[in-house]
Amino acid sequence: MSKAMLIDTTKCIGCRACQVACKSWNDLPGEPAAYSETWSSPRYLSSHQYTRIIFREAAAPDGSLRWHFIKRQCMHCLDPACESVCPVGALKRLPEGPVVYDDGRCIGCRYCMMACPFQIPKFEWGKAVPLIRKCTFCAERQAEGLAPACASTCPTGALLFGEREELLREARHRLGTAPERYYPQVYGDRIVGGTSKLYLTAASFEELGLNHRGFRTDLGEVPYGIYGRAWMSKVPLVALTVGGLAVGLHYLNRRLAAVQARQGDKEG
Amino acid sequence: MAEQVKKWYPGEGKITPARVVLYLLVMLGAVSALIRLFFGLGATTNLSDAYPWGLWISFDVLAGVALAGGGFTMAATIYIFNLKKFEPLLRPAKISAFLGYLLFIIGLTLDLGQPWRIWHPMIMWNPQSVLFEVAWCVMLYTAVLAIDVLILALERFRKEKLVQFFRQIYLVLVVAGIILSTLHQSSLGALYLLLPEKMSDLWASQAIGPLFFVSAIIGGMSMIILESLLSARAYGRQPEMNILPDFARGLSIVLIAYFAMKVTDIYARGVNVLVWDRPHFFFLVELVGTVGLPALLLSLPAVRHSEKGLLTGAGIAAFGVVLNRFNVSLTSYGGYREFSYFPSFFEIIITLSLVAGGILLFDFLTRNLPVYHELTRESG
Ligand code: SF4
Ligand code: SF4
């Protein structure tokens, strides 16, 4: 059983208390406010901003406008691409759920940033000794039996922390009892093999214009690490084949040349 | 018997303008590298969270390794396929492969956030990571190349016993080199297997590993031709026009095979290539201009038998490999977020200085090691 978080965005009021709680728990520096066109602040996740609420105004089917507040942070994938690509094993998924990062191992190759399907890992560009930074799902708090800082702070219950199976059941229950309230999908249920962050939204991520801003809907249900693992599983065979061919051809061609030379001698 | 020469080539030891420029570039690069180390990547590069990989990965790493593919290609030609007539091309290829990897490692080191941890993959393993495998193969292969150069040095200093020893185990080195090269050349492409969603369909192919491998052979072979022609010019030697045309014929065959692979790949995945935008433009230039065209050129005997023709054909082919690596890593990746990337002054200078350093080192090593038959400096 692993822990997860159900993010019911229809309950979020955009107060951003979770952003503040995250900053203070992780001791991250504040920064001058910078708003996006839709009043989200800050504009991007960064090495000192592990989560943010994206503000979106979108038209409902009846033409009325309404606000949507979508929390973004590491999805804590069940089979994370970041873990599978890291050459030194700095990123690891704990059995309890959080995908955590080991400061002492990272070499700073940034492959995890390239590979994460949600573009989550961020780099400390400003430092001479930089590390990767991202949401930790408050692994240390969880180890103490506490809920993540954001979930403990949320005043409306939009962030529900618990067992993944139970939360999935709860999400489906909500979809079933209030279908008019939700877009009929639990984002994170199966995408890229499933994530620990499960989203309920009032509209699809396409309608919210977020499907190319961190909430892609075209990722499929296969964890991307599979491609790397499939490649790596062929390595021993390729090595043996190439090696065997090389040695074999070496002797074969030498022999052919010797035979040819002898024939040449006879004729000449 | 090699003739004893004091001067390698007429201008040896003279300070020419070209040399001055090269030395200046290397010095500028060294200073830039120090600045990069002390102030960090953010201060010196245009890389960002939206573009974690830039010029250094595209050129120093991906293109550099492919162009240094001449080492294993030549080793296979001579020792595996027993095509002994190409032997004069072997030693320069070894030298340039070794230098290629050396410079690539310097470039990569500067690109890493924590260069001093470059050895971490040796003891911290993640066997499911393609990059982990690349790290190991590159490490071992560079060691093989270093032994190769060491053997040349031993020859020069007449350590006959040691040379004899290495000759005995030489086949092991050759086979190891070929295995390691096959693996990491293709795996550099396989790095991109994990990010199809961030890449243009034109390059996001499941066949990217084999494509990288074959194009590395093209990179290696075309660089061997270019080096032979250019160093002949620089050193006032005769280029090996007795064997280069045949070698170029081999290159044209590989180019045709690669062209066929690319077309099959695009066709099998049903990608529409006839769209007018930037990636498609670069894709067509790559495929038609830098694979198809040199394949055609080098298949014409008249072109192969002229120095100019060889220079043009091999030049375009080598450029094509570089273009492909830029396309896979930058053109293809572009447009994912509302950011764009163009390398900074420091990134460009460091890359240029690596190339300049490579030329100077190549010159130094060819002058001091038994590389070209007719230019063997005896040492007493
Ligand atoms: S969202 Fe990205 S960083 Fe987070 S666990 Fe998944 S792959 Fe790793
Ligand atoms: S940047 Fe660090 S954490 Fe990310 S893949 Fe590279 S070594 Fe692993």
Give a concise summary.
Chain A is an alpha+beta fold and 268 residues long.
Strand coverage percent of chain B? under 5%
Structurally, the number of domains of chain A stands at: 2
How would you classify the helix and strand content of chain B by structural class?
Answer: mainly alpha
Order of helices and strands of chain B: HHHHHHHHHHHHHHH
Helical coverage of chain A, percent range: 25-40%
- Sheet with the most strands, sense and barrel status of chain A: 3 strands, mixed
Please report the number of helical segments of chain B: 15
Rg of chain A: 25 Å
CATH architecture of the largest domain in chain A: 2-Layer Sandwich
The stretches of 5 or more residues of chain B where confidence is low (pLDDT under 50) are none
Number of alpha- plus pi-helical segments of chain A: 7
Predict the CATH topology of chain B: Formate dehydrogenase/DMSO reductase fold
How would you describe the overall organization of this protein?
Helices cover 32% and strands 15% of the residues of chain A. With 268 residues, chain A is α+β, with helices and mostly antiparallel strands. Chain A folds into 2 domains: 3-230, Alpha-Beta Plaits (2-Layer Sandwich); 240-267. A 3-stranded mixed sheet of chain A has the order 8-1-9. A two-stranded antiparallel sheet of chain A has the order 2-3. A two-stranded antiparallel ribbon of chain A has the order 4-5. Chain A is elongated. Chain B has a single domain (22-39, 53-375), classed as Formate dehydrogenase/DMSO reductase domain (Formate dehydrogenase/DMSO reductase fold). Chain B has helices spanning 17-39, 41-44, 55-67, 70-80, 90-111, 120-123, 130-156, 160-168, 170-190, 208-235, 244-268, 278-298, 301-304, 307-331, 345-368. The model of chain B has no long low-confidence stretch (mean pLDDT 91). Classes of the chains: A alpha+beta (268), B mainly alpha (380). At the A-B interface, helix 2, helix 3, strand 6 and helix 7 of A face helix 1, helix 2, helix 4, helix 7 and helix 9 of B. The complex binds iron/sulfur cluster (2 copies). Residues 85-88, 90-91, 106-112, 132 of chain A line the site of one iron/sulfur cluster.
